[in-house]
């Protein structure tokens, strides 16, 4: 049973919760979308306890309270953005552009595709532009990966990513119900992307940016982690030349974080202040020999200091 679940967990979780949300909106009950999210979080934690990828990542490392604060603040910011959406759409949208005649699920897929492009490009820029990296580094400071990590972001960077993903949709005149579904879909995707569930993806690893693929993005070895930027899909990484996956390398506790900043602050308030302080960088750890044979990792070794931006 557990072996079967490792194969079906990702698709069932994604389709099940997003499908439930679609049904609620179609029956005019969007007020219950919060229940969908809470249930998804509960299922995520239960699955991580039942079939963990790395058992150590399930243990509280003095970060659970901080991560909950990050999640509450960032989800509150999302709610404020959704509340302002009708006004922004009325002021900025080009009339008649959004395909409102399409079935709701098709409109949601279109919104996901467009938002994914904007958020992925902002994510990519955040590893290239020093000022953006200072904000984004908060997310990369994690020492373990589990569902809530996807919501652990500096609120300023959260707003930048949201703007990059939502601005094109506002101009196109996205309806409020589709935007609500998009926000829920992003939350579901973040749970899957940072999950500590031992998932098997098979051919889906070429399509979906779920945990087995995204874990490599959190490697602490300088630019070795400059891979797999996509939020929903790996398409953008194929186009950017940043797609990377190694089935034979198992990520562990010591692979995560920011190599040049092993003492990155762990307190919530200190993390909010960190991007605006002068910091001292230490020498990055070398890329593990098991990965050096890969061409991307060889480039990463020749370009140290990638996470110092």
Automatic annotation (TrEMBL):
GO MF assignments: iron ion binding; oxidoreductase activity
UniProt keyword Transmembrane present: yes
Superkingdom, natural source: Bacteria
Subcellular location: Membrane
InterPro entries tied to this protein: Fatty_acid_hydroxylase, Sterol_Desaturase_Related
GO cellular component: membrane
Fatty acid hydroxylase domain span: 109-242
One GO term (biological process): lipid biosynthetic process
Pfam families: FA_hydroxylase
Main localization of the protein described in the UniProt heading: membrane
Entry's transmembrane regions: 7-26, 32-51, 72-92, 104-125, 169-192
Keyword entries, A-Z: Membrane, Transmembrane, Transmembrane helix
Name of the protein in its database record: Sterol desaturase family protein
Organism: Pseudomonas yamanorum
Lineage, top ranks: Bacteria, Pseudomonadati, Pseudomonadota, Gammaproteobacteria, Pseudomonadales
């Amino acid at each position: 049973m557990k072996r079967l679940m490792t194969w079906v967990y990702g698709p069932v979780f994604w389709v099940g919760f997003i499908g439930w949300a679609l049904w609620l909106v179609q029956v005019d009950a969007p007020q219950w979308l919060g229940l969908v999210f809470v249930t998804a979080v509960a299922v995520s934690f239960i699955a991580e306890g039942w079939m963990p990828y790395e058992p150590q990542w399930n243990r509280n490392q003095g970060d659970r309270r901080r991560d909950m604060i990050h999640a509450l603040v960032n989800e509150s910011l999302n709610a404020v953005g959704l509340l302002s959406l009708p006004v922004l759409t009325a002021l900025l949208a080009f009339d008649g552009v959004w395909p409102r005649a399409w079935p709701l699920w098709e409109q949601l897929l279109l919104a996901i595709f467009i938002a994914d492009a904007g958020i992925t490009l902002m994510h990519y820029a955040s590893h290239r532009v020093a000022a953006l990296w200072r904000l984004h580094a908060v997310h990369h400071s994690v020492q373990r990966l589990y569902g809530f990590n996807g919501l652990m972001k500096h609120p300023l960077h959260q707003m930048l990513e949201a703007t990059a993903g939502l601005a094109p949709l506002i101009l196109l005149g996205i309806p409020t119900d589709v935007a609500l579904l998009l926000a829920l879909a992003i939350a579901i995707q973040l749970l899957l992307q940072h999950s500590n569930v031992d998932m098997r993806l098979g051919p889906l690893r070429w399509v979906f940016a779920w945990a087995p693929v995204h874990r490599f993005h959190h490697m602490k070895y300088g630019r070795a982690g400059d891979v797999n930027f996509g939020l929903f899909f790996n398409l953008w990484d194929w186009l950017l030349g940043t797609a990377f996956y190694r089935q034979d390398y198992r990520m562990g506790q010591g692979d995560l974080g920011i190599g040049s900043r092993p003492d990155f602050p762990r307190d919530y308030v200190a993390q909010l202040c960190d991007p605006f302080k002068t910091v001292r960088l230490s020498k990055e750890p070398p890329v593990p020999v098991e990965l050096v044979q890969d061409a991307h990792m060889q480039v990463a070794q020749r370009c140290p200091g990638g996470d110092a931006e």
